Amino acid sequence: MPANVGVDFTRSKVEPMVRGLFTEAEQDTVLATFEKSVVYVTSETIETILLNHMWERSAWDLANMYLLSVGAKLLGKKAERIVGMSEETTCYVSPDYFVDDDPFADFIVHEAAHIFHNCKRRTIGLHETRRKEWLLDIEFTKGETFAYSCEAYARIIACAKRPSERRGLAVEYGSKRRISADRVDPAEVANIVTEAANARNGWKVILARCAPIAKPRSIAQLVRDLSANAPTTDRA
After folding, report:
1. Euclidean distance between CA atoms 160 and 99, whole angstroms
2. Closest by alpha carbon to 74, among 61, 83, 57?
3. Residue 188 within a domain
4. What average pLDDT does this structure show over 140-164?
5. Spatial separation of the C-alpha atoms in residues 114 and 167, rounded to whole Å
6. Residue 92 is part of which domain span?
């Protein structure tokens, strides 16, 4: 694992995403959260991580993440071969992250993107309302689509100096399947990344494409809305 891994490294990974998705007034608060949210699962940290973890299933996944990184036998046949996972405001990343040769892979960005829909605004000190509860509103079924899209787009803007280069890298990304169809629709992710690469703020494009689907109003709600908006008339 590189020697320069730390707060500055983490910030350099997530800052473009945070700047593109949050208002200027909220950006520093979100960045401060991410600076301390990434935990690297190594031989020096694994014991403390497992002893202090409150959920058995997650501890099991983290143990397997570590075993995979050192080439040891996993704890069971059903163990997932993962190099990163997120819970609430914490991202766990394996050293294997640093040996992935996919130019569009960035597991720190991927796991950080999940925090946006797993963490409530009040948890990190942001104003929360009934309609604005989570850091970002992401459709429940689009969590992985959002994370994969952010991951690929982050790599594109990190590597491209000009808009034309962004568009070219987006085409390259979509030229072959890079993610499992079991988790998301690879074609949909490629389409989102292409649209983002052609936009002034691609992060907002990704967010819009993964936003919650508006639920149809019930009959009772329609009646209430119509009554509330009906014009009033003066009685004779």
Report:
1. 22
2. 61
3. yes
4. 95
5. 25
6. 1-135
Q: How far is 50 from 33, CA to CA, in rounded Å?
A: 22
Under 8 Å between Cβ of 8 and 35: no
> Residue 147: CB partners within 8 Å, gap ≥ 6?
110, 111, 113, 114
End residue of a domain, out of 135, 165, 183: 135
pLDDT in tens, 75-129: 988 888 888 888 877 888 888 777 777 899 888 899 889 989 888 999 999 998 8
Identify the three-state secondary structure at position 178: coil
Structure tokens, 127: 């104003």
Task: Say if residue 128 is in the same domain as residue 148.
Answer: no
Position 233 confidence tier, pLDDT thresholds 50, 70, 90: very low
Domain-ending residue, one of 113, 135, 157: 135
Q: Mind listing the pLDDT tens digit for each residue in 18-32?
A: 999 999 999 999 999
- The answer, yes or no, to whether residue 1 has pLDDT greater than 80, is no
Cα separation values, 46 from 18, 109, 196, 213, Å: 28, 21, 37, 39
The answer on 122 and 8 residing in a single domain is: yes
Q: What is the DSSP letter of 10?
A: H
